[in-house]
Amino acid sequence: MENRIKLKVLGLTYSQVKKGAYALVLAEEEGPRRIPVVIGVAEAQSIAISLEGIIPPRPITHDLFVSFAHGFGIRLKEVCIYKFENGVFSSEMVFDDGTREIRVDARTSDAIAIALRTRSDIYVMQDIIEEAGFIYEESDEKNIVRGDHEPAQKDRGLSSCSRKELKEKLEKAIAEEAYEEAARIQEELNKRDNRL
């Protein structure tokens, strides 16, 4: 389909539209346009875990779905955001088992969470990015993070911890299934690794 544009996941930020929700920011792979998709806390956690490379001690729902599909030889080929109506995005997941192709309607947040885990391509229809997208400006990027994050005040406490303390906190957060906290800690560790 020529009227589709390939996207990448830029990150997550707090939703300015809906209180208590997050915005998943998708970016045109070869262009300046971005699409914010309002998603719930559970989906944001799942996406953050995948973005940060955190492996929970027990599989969460999206991990379970991917394991189930792989167990039966089914792979996710791609995700396509095909409709935008009343502020809601609709997506389609295209699966393949080697002999046939199946299209499944899905919530965009779930489709993206699974696509990240399977490293599948994500597309959007041209008319949707024209309607719902915005042109990236540098000031927009400062509030976008590569995982589930809270405002900077929370991070100041993490920045004063030693690497050892951070690793202990990370293990504890994962064991307690506090994935939002684990993502914040992992991000602090990643920042330190990038400085080295």
UniProtKB/TrEMBL annotation:
Annotated PROSITE patterns: BFN
Entry superkingdom: Bacteria
Entry GO MF terms: nuclease activity
Domain BFN stretches: 4-136
SUPFAM superfamilies: Hypothetical protein TM0160
InterPro entries xref list: BFN_sf, Bi_nuclease_dom
Coiled-coil intervals, chain numbering: 163-195
Alphabetical UniProt keywords: Coiled coil
Designated name of the protein: BFN domain-containing protein
Source organism of this protein record: Barnesiella viscericola DSM 18177
